[in-house]
């Protein structure tokens, strides 16, 4: 039986998870330096021990209500194949070990919307944990940025 560990975090009192193998570290909130002309869900950048991380606000990216006390947020910093990035989340709850069989597919109807970022669902008793596809979240962002840039070049802007 294959098992994996999932970092569980909260957004708007809903539990989400990402594979721990993609996580470099979890840090407390610190002021973010804003960057001009980026999508609204990119909070800005932070410097962690000499490494710059763009910070994505997952509430904004997933079209959830803004966090009323942003200074209580946490950053999940990741070192992915193509980039280093941080996700701003409400709180990090736990590291959960699960069997691969415990992850159910996302219902087909939800894959058409922003829910397409959900790669699976875990049911633990009364809990429902939505597993996010980190690579799709980032690839979608890069595709939109490239499309916008290409369109601007074609229009001569």
Estimate the helix proportion, in percent. 10-25%
CATH 2nd-level architecture: Beta Barrel
- CATH topology name: OB fold (Dihydrolipoamide Acetyltransferase, E2P)
- How many whole angstroms does the radius of gyration measure? 16 Å
Quote the beta fraction.
Answer: over 45%
Counted up, domains total 1
- Spatially, the strands of the biggest sheet line up as 8-1-2-11-10-9
Mean pLDDT: 82
Could you name the CATH class?
Answer: Mainly Beta
The CATH homologous superfamily is called: CheA-289, Domain 4
The coarse silhouette is globular
Question: Which regions are unreliable across 5 or more consecutive residues at pLDDT < 50?
Answer: 141-155
How many DSSP-defined strands? 11
User: Number of helical segments?
Assistant: 2
Coarse structural class: alpha+beta
Q: What string, H for helix and E for strand, traces the elements in order?
A: EEEEEHEEEEEEH
Biggest sheet architecture: 6 strands, mixed
Ends apart, CA distance between termini: 55 Å
Protein name: Chemotaxis protein CheW
Organism: Sporanaerobium hydrogeniformans
